[in-house]
Design a protein that fits this description.
Length: about 450
């Protein structure tokens, strides 16, 4: 088998550690991905038979050392980004939260015991740098070949509830199925309320990994099956749609189809992660408005309100603006295309989404939404694409700069500044209708 590749500097450092009496093992994800012939930018290194102080001293010869305390024995080197050095350790749960652990460092820990703290067998592989030998104490290689996710140690696994979300992430990223034992353990942990002990930031990080995976629906279907979805996604499971429009069934099924289509197209949008969040959340307004016969009028508008009130995982202002705008406007382009797209209507839309979402991103979500139904034909999408390309060629993809500004209103002696916003909106509408600046100001003066 080919040798696991490391940077030249990493090899020099590993050789120095070995010369000083340490033993270098590459562990975890980098070995898993090596076995799967995938690239991995993150290297986890465990160093045996060397004290923490000695390891710090060796590493400091090659750059600035950044330590995370001797209790964790984790070290980074500024000249070697992506590499994390640690000593073998045993972890003991001390509380309910994800980070509530005590750590016992043991440079002489047996290899199998060091590997046993890992979550899944595919992550418990160890690659010995000096010999190239792979140690597989729990048949992780067999599980990779069987494409299954299996827990290493049930008692250890349940000490960290974040592993539930990591399971969903691995299922989505590597196209795995989980063993019954893994499924049952994750479901039991959810039932015990253990997900409540994970910080919002860590949940967000794991959701991001699922969303950026090749097959994100697999991760969320797993979370659905173990009853681990947040309420606004769980509600989609119980919201049925009109089967003549949505033969795929409930809103969750539709969302999963849209999500996988979005994964195929995310490379073509301005902000792939925000785009994937938009695909996941675009229909969260439907549970609130869907009638018994499956109609869901104004679910886009209501969805934006649900996002404001219930979705707290996304904290960044820029991402929130993007996702909220996509939810609120995801029906607009298709509705325009269903009829004759009037330039003024399209230009108004450009202004409304300006600085929040590029119109081509909105177009891509509209396509995914339309294709995420069993009743859509290729011709329907081709017609939508043609209409959109025609209007974009004619009217562009950016909002027109306003002819009339607040300074113009001041100069024209509009005294009631509380009305400026309304006046500027009216001025912009007149501009889109073809009026010159002079006529717009005159019309505003005359109260038109």
């Amino acid at each position: 088998m080919r040798k696991l590749k490391c940077s030249k500097l990493a090899q020099e450092i590993f050789d120095a550690i070995e010369e000083e009496g340490g033993s270098v093992y590459l562990v975890g994800g980098v070995v898993r991905d090596y076995m799967m012939k995938r690239t991995n930018k993150d290297y986890d290194i465990e160093v045996f038979h060397m004290s923490y102080a000695h390891l710090v001293e060796v590493l400091s010869r090659f750059g600035q050392v950044m330590t995370f305390g001797s209790s964790f024995a984790i070290i980074h080197l500024d000249q070697l980004p992506g590499y994390e050095f640690a000593l073998p350790r045993v972890e003991y749960k001390t509380g309910t939260k994800h980070q509530d652990f005590s750590i016992e460092i043991d440079p002489e820990l047996p290899l199998e015991k060091a590997a046993s703290r890992r979550d899944f067998t595919i992550n418990a592989l160890m690659y010995e740098y000096k010999t190239g030998v792979i140690y597989d104490f729990f048949d992780g290689i067999g599980d990779l070949q069987r494409k299954q996710l299996r827990i290493v140690n049930t008692e250890k696994f349940k000490e960290d509830p974040l592993r539930i979300l990591r399971a969903a992430s691995f299922i989505a990223r590597y196209d795995l199925t989980c063993t019954q034992e893994t499924f049952d353990e994750c479901q039991a942990m959810v039932k015990e309320g253990m997900l409540e002990d994970i910080s919002r930031e860590r949940v967000f990080e794991e959701y991001n990994k699922i969303l950026m995976a090749p097959h994100p629906s697999a991760g969320f279907i797993f979370l659905r099956d173990i009853h681990a979805l947040p309420s606004y996604l769980e509600a989609l499971v119980h919201t049925n749609q009109r089967l003549d429009y949505h033969p795929e069934g409930n809103v969750f099924n539709h969302t999963m189809l849209v999500l996988d289509l979005a994964a195929l197209t995310k490379k073509d949008v301005s902000d792939p992660l925000s785009f994937m969040w938009s695909a996941l959340l675009h229909d969260i307004g439907k549970p609130a408005v869907t009638t018994p016969d499956g109609h869901a009028l104004y679910h886009d508008i209501v969805g934006a309100k649900v996002f404001d009130q219930e979705v707290d995982l996304i904290q960044g202002k820029k991402m929130r603006n993007y996702v909220r705008t996509m939810i609120a406007y995801h029906m607009r382009l298709m509705n325009m295309a269903r009829h004759h797209i009037r330039p003024i209507t399209y230009k108004r839309l450009l202004k409304e989404i300006e600085g929040k979402v590029p119109v081509r991103d909105l177009m891509m979500l509209s396509r995914c939404d339309k294709l995420g139904r069993g009743a859509i034909t290729y011709d329907t999408i081709m017609e939508f694409d043609k209409k959109m390309e025609d209007i974009m060629a004619k009217c562009g993809t950016e909002a027109e700069e306003p002819l009339v500004t607040g300074q113009d209103l001041i100069d024209a002696r509009f005294e009631d500044r509380s009305q400026y916003r309304t006046l500027l909106e009216k001025a912009y509408d007149m501009q889109l209708a073809g009026y010159s600046k002079e006529k717009i100001l005159r019309g505003l003066k005359n109260g038109k």
